[in-house]
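User: Can you recover a sequence for this backbone? Please restate the input before giving your answer.

Assistant: Of course. Working from this structure:
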């Protein structure tokens, strides 16, 4: 007897039926917090690439990225926290 595996975890969150199943991302469902959480590592990664490839010192590139990321972190944690 084969039981079909449920695609819901009981809380109403869909999950893949198989581990190798590809899940498409609906970009209309992304919140501003998702975008900020993706922008912070992008700022740090771009600073790292700049420090590796240009004549900019690594400490200066990473300090600039930290100054870019700091207002984003403060905004989502202090000024507009998730409810």
């Amino acid at each position: 007897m084969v039981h079909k595996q449920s695609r819901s975890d009981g809380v109403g969150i869909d999950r893949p039926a198989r581990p190798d199943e590809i899940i498409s991302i609906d970009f209309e469902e992304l919140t501003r917090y998702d975008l900020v959480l993706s922008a912070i590592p992008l700022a740090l990664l771009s600073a790292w690439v700049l420090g590796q490839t240009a004549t900019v010192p690594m400490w200066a590139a990473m300090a600039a990225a930290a100054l870019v990321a700091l207002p984003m972190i403060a905004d989502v944690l202090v000024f507009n926290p998730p409810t």
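That completes the design. Helices lie at 32-53, 58-79.
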